What we know:
The protein has helices spanning 2-47, 51-55, 76-86, 90-93, and strands at 65-68, 71-74, 95-105, 110-120, 128-139, 142-150. The protein is an alpha+beta fold.
Amino acid sequence: MRFISCVAVAVLCSCAVQSSAERSAADAKKQTSAIRKVLDAQVAAWNRGDIPGFMDGYVRGEKLRFASGGTYRFGWKVTLEKYQKSYPNADAMGRLTFSDLKIQLLSPQYAEVFGRWHLKRGGEFEDISGLYTLLMQRTESGWRVLHDHTSSKPPETDKKAE
């Protein structure tokens, strides 16, 4: 009888561990999907010329860090103003696409996103593209970019390492 009780306890523990793992996998899928939605909303906002809408994907406040072109800045408002100055019209903004997206959940509060970006532009503006790494934070408003490190290269040099 004691043996049967031990087996029953082992089976119940195994089921609890499996159920917990299934819940963790389901939550990871849910969080990854939520992060993708933020990035998709940013692309949609950019492509309709809505820089403030694009910036909704970032943490508001002074903790936001944006690094690009060998410099960095802190703050949501400073980053918004830099985007508005750098992309003054629809031709400069172009059409944004993200690709090669990799999302890694680091904890329940943080995730790393790595990917490629490309702007197909018109008028006097050349197309540009590059790589980005984001540290995203889960906030009361959902997932938001806390740190953004973006690089750019001419399209002919923007390829995967062999």
